[in-house]
Design brief:
With about 300 residues, this protein is an alpha/beta fold. It has 2 domains: about 30 residues, no CATH class; about 220 residues, 2-enoyl-CoA Hydratase, Chain A, domain 1 (Alpha-Beta Complex), CATH 3.90.226. About 35% of the residues lie in helices and about 15% in strands. The chain is built from 10 helices and 9 strands. It starts with a helix and ends in a 32-residue tail after the last helix.
């Protein structure tokens, strides 16, 4: 009897068992609705029933913005991977390795150069899945590089912010990225080129205290958490109960902190219109062919552009 129970039955179960992907279903944090992952992915990671905006990876974000889902990856200068030899429960270098394996990104910021409704644009995207989108030396270099490339190419720069703040494992070197990125934004502004920021969920900490709130136009996705300190810290400091919806995109728009709250499905045409307006470019008739023609992208610069993504 033990042989049947311990050997035969497990073998039968292993034969009949079907492997189910872990992300086959997604549960909406707002309504609790269960949705197929493929349905959410095809809907730009917006839950169809509740319109809840899930977090969107850097590559998926670039695909949703650029024409024909095609762009050039911008090469970013290398930095010292662990300047402080930091260690808490684990080594910092091990955390970086795990984050790179999880996201297939070098760091929390990815920069792309391509066309948005026929016009060249530089798009800088933070990926929250990479150590909470934290701002370290590599991320700071990527943001500065994107802003410098926009000046060089005389094109708008669009930044998608998603971060928990500065990266503590890099200490003061992380905090130095706040003034560095602010200076780079000022250089773009002196060149009279548009700087548009899209605040996604969440955008907090030192990122909010620097380049994320310096846009010529401040856009936010619906329901995005935007702030510097957490709500609980603020309540303990001022000893008052905060109003409902405090630090959410809609609340900030009502109180003049941001300009627009735009649904993700409307984000691409909205950004294209803003770029044309701020660049004083004429309106164009948008066509979306299935395959990208040979001249669909601006000519690459070998000094700053890497190979197109696989």
């Amino acid at each position: 009897m033990n042989w049947i129970t311990n050997v035969v039955r497990p073998k039968i179960r292993s034969i009949l068992r079907r492997e189910t992907p872990e992300n086959l279903w997604i549960k909406c944090p707002d309504s609790g609705q269960l949705v197929f992952y493929k349905d959410v992915e095809s809907n730009q990671f917006v839950i169809p029933g509740s319109n809840y905006h899930m977090r969107m990876g850097a590559v998926a974000r670039l695909k949703s913005i650029f024409d024909n889902e095609t762009w050039f990856d911008v090469a970013v200068p290398d930095v010292t991977p662990d300047p402080l030899k930091f260690r808490d429960e684990r080594k910092y270098v091990d955390r970086i390795k795990d984050a790179r394996a999880k996201t297939n990104l070098n760091d929390s910021v990815k920069v792309g150069y391509g066309k948005l409704e026929g016009a060249p644009a530089v798009v800088v995207v933070q990926d929250f899945d990479f150590m909470g989108g934290s701002l370290g030396m590599a991320a700071g270099e990527a943001i500065v590089k994107g802003l410098e490339l926009a000046v060089e190419k005389r094109s708008p720069c669009i930044v998608f912010a998603a971060s928990g703040g500065a990266r503590m494992q890099e200490g003061i070197l992380s905090l130095m990225q706040l003034p560095r990125t602010t200076v780079a934004v000022q250089i773009l502004r002196e060149a009279k080129l548009p700087y548009i920021v899209v605040l996604t969920n969440p955008t907090t900490g030192g990122v909010t205290a620097s380049y994320a709130m310096l846009g010529d136009v401040q856009i936010a996705e619906p329901g995005a958490l935007i702030g510097f300190a957490g709500a609980r810290v603020i309540e303990q400091t001022i000893r008052e109960k905060l109003p409902e919806g405090f630090q959410r995109a809609e609340y900030l728009k009502d109180h003049g902190m941001i300009d627009m709250v735009v649904h993700r499905h409307e984000l691409r045409p909205t950004l294209a219109r803003l770029c044309r307006l701020l660049m004083k470019a004429p309106a164009v008739e948008v066509q979306a062919p299935k395959s990208a023609p040979a001249d669909a992208l601006p000519p690459p610069d070998p000094a700053v552009i890497a190979a197109p993504p696989a």
